[in-house]
Structure formats: C-alpha cells, structure tokens
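QA checklist item 7 of 12: single-chain prediction sanity check.
[x] sequence parsed
[x] length recorded as 252
[x] structure emitted
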Amino acid sequence: METGLTGKRVLVTGASGGIGSACARAFAAEGADVVIHYHRGRDRAEALAAELGGAKLAGADLTVEAEVVRLFEEAGPLDVCAAVAGAWPSEDLPVWELPLERWRATLDANLTATFLTARGFLNQLDGDGSLILVGSTAGLLGEAGHADYAAAKSAILGGLLLSLKNEVVRRNPLARVNAVAPGWTESPMTRGHVSEEQVRRVSRTMALRKVAQPEDIAAQVVLLASPVLSGHVTGQVVTVAGGMEGRVIHEG
C-alpha cells in the first residue's frame, strides 16, 4: 500500500533503541531518507546506519537545549519527525519514596526532551509535515511505582499533543501531530521485565496475552506519518497495547 513517504526526510529520535530502530527500518522500507538520532548508543546507531545503506547519524542529549538546536541544524530540512526517545526508570518507588532528583530526571528525559524535539522540528518545518510523539499506556492508566514516568507520558499524550495539533496549522495548514501509546513492549528498555511469568502477570489486564514487539509500534508510527493513509488524522493517540484496560480481564 502506498504511504507517500518515498523521498521524505525523516528524523527518528532514540533510534539506537528497540522501538526507535524499528521505526527507522520501517521508514527506510517505505523509501524515506532517514536521519538516525542517538545519545549514548552510538555503536548501535552506527550499525543501524550501515544496515540502512549509510543513513545519516546525529548525536545529541535531547535534554540539553543547545544540543537539540545543533541536532536539527545537522539533520537538515525534515518532513517527518518521530519523537521516540525516552527513558523508563526500572526501580519501583512509591511517591513517598521518590527522590526529587529522579522525578526531575525522568521528566527531563521524557517530557522536556519531547518538547525540545517538537520545537526544533516545527521551527524548521516548511511544508505539510508530520510529527509523531511516543507516549505510553502509563500516561493513560497510570503506573504504580513510576509516577514520574506516568506523569511525563500523560503530559505528552494530553496537554502537549492537543496544544501542538492546534498550533502546527499556523506553520502549515496541513501539518499534523499525533501520538502512539505503547503498552508493554519487548525492547532493551524493558529487558528483564518481560519473562514468561511476568508477561502472564501483566497481561491479566490485556485482551491479547502477549507483549508487543518494536515492529508493532513502528507500524503505527509510519501509519500516522503517512500523508496518504492519515492525511486527515491529527491530535489522536493510537494505543498499541493488546487491548489493555485499567482492570483485570483474565483471572490467571
């Protein structure tokens, strides 16, 4: 099916990670010219760039304003941006034990990084571009032990997304912003948290009793980026979580 992404220049942030690399591959498969962003995973990013035939690399700490400005200068003109980069702190901590330092670091790594990425992309936009934000089901349903992460992702999927979709049309009347909210996904970020036993436990709230693969998320990111398939879709959140609810569906 034609997506209209052939020849489009696409920046994928966090492309050295599981979901990000899957997005980069999916865009490349559609004929897009992909720019691979990384922060700490340079080796993985270089391997991915080679796999995609020499895709452009751009390193930056997305929580540092000057580095984000440099990132977009190096990336050049862009048609699409998939803001995938983020971080999930693995340690479960209730709010009464949550250090302010971790709270701030988590909001920076997720919400601030997404804000700076969106601003950088929209500042250079010169056409009917598409911005795709990546949130989480934690931002829709909450996540005990990770209030910092849930708050950051909720802000992305709520106030930020809904404000951006009304602002981007000032840049171009056909510009669009949407978001994807993955549930449990098998990736480097969740390694060690998706064993068979853990999948059975967490999937009690899911109709489909399995975790997503990065490619499941990437497919929806590409769909939302497509001006052909999603040209009249903006301000929407696509949840990719196997029918997850905030209640137990399966007893065992």
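[x] summary fact logged: The chain has one domain: 9-239.
[ ] second reviewer sign-off
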